[in-house]
């Protein structure tokens, strides 16, 4: 299938941003300038620029034009010992985890089966946000059974949960299973991500197990699609 003109132009402009032709903070060419360069209509250029704004490559400032945005926060999904703050530090950014709410709720139906615990057994439901340079990029809702790690504190939860489980409760995460989807921010998600309702977000559902296959944590995480990208690393054994 032949690629549409606006898709071609968008890809070309993304390449220029990624290769430094247009640098962070630079004012972007106007619609008229791009129309002349690519010899296309204003409608075609506007579609490309709108998508670049939606995908987080450009920022529009009323009365001033469009500017190249900061690079998206890049996180590694594959096996890595680097924690959130370490990954951001490597990108020259300051990471921060903020506990929004923690409550103890009784296990019902799905949660009871997921954790293989008795009905009404206490579960710690944890809501946290993660920020890069004080800009929220992730909202997470995690559940940890009380008998796994009783009495998790604010101080512990504003650091790496997995490090806390290992250092304080002698529980090591042996395996995580993650499902990645695209979703749109609803009212609750947009509140925590500080974005408009309907913003495209990455949704990651994670089940964490110890070496015996016991489910230690279940979480749902929402990442701003305009602020986040993911790197996936695969290692292959020689035949």
Automatic annotation (TrEMBL):
Pfam families: GntR, UTRA. The keyword Transcription applies. Keywords: DNA-binding, Transcription, Transcription regulation. This is GntR family transcriptional regulator. The keyword Phosphoprotein does not apply. Gene3D superfamilies: Chorismate lyase-like (3.40.1410.10), Winged helix-like DNA-binding domain superfamily/Winged helix DNA-binding domain (1.10.10.10). It comes from the Bacteria. One of its GO terms (molecular function) is DNA binding. Residues 3-71 form the HTH gntR-type domain. Transmembrane segments: none annotated. It comes from Alkalibacterium putridalgicola. One of its GO terms (biological process) is negative regulation of DNA-templated transcription. The gene is ybgA.
């Amino acid at each position: 299938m032949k690629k549409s003109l606006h898709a071609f132009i968008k890809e070309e402009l993304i390449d220029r941003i990624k290769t430094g032709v247009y640098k962070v903070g630079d004012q972007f060419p106007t619609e008229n300038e791009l129309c002349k360069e690519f010899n296309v209509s204003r409608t075609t250029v506007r579609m490309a620029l709108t998508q670049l704004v939606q995908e987080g490559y450009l920022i529009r400032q009323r009365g001033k034009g469009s500017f190249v945005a900061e690079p998206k926060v890049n996180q590694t999904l594959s096996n890595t010992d680097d924690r959130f703050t370490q990954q951001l530090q490597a990108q020259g950014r300051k990471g921060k985890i903020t506990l929004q709410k923690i409550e103890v709720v009784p296990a019902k139906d799905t949660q009871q089966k997921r954790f293989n615990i008795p009905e009404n057994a206490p579960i710690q439901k944890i809501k946290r946000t993660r920020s890069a340079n004080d800009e929220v990029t992730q909202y997470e809702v995690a559940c940890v059974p009380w008998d796994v790690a009783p009495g998790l504190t604010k101080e512990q939860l504003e650091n790496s949960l997995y490090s806390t489980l290992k250092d304080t409760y002698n529980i090591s995460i042996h395996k995580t299973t993650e499902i990645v989807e695209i979703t749109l921010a609803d009212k609750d998600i947009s509140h925590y991500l500080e974005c408009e309702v309907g913003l495209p977000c990455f949704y990651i559902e994670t089940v964490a197990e110890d070496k015996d296959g016991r489910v230690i944590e279940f979480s749902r995480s929402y990442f701003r699609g305009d602020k986040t990208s993911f790197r996936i690393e695969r290692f292959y054994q020689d035949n």
